[in-house]
Amino acid sequence: MRSIAIINQKGGVGKTTTAVNMSAALARAGQRVWLIDLDPQAHASLHLGLALEENDPSTYQVLTENLPIERARYAVDDNLWVSPAHIDLAAAEMELSGEVGREIILRECLSRDQESFDYLIVDCPPSLGVLTLNALTTVNEVFLPLQPHFLALHGLSKLLQTIQLVAKRLNSQLVLSKVVYCMCDNGTRLAGEVISDVEEFLEHESNSKSPWSRASSFETRIRRNIRLAEAPSFGKSIFDYSPNCNGAADYENLANEMLRAHLSGQITSKAA
Ligand code: ADP
Ligand code: MG
Question: What is the CATH superfamily name and number for domain 2-271?
Answer without folding.
Answer: P-loop containing nucleotide triphosphate hydrolases (3.40.50.300)
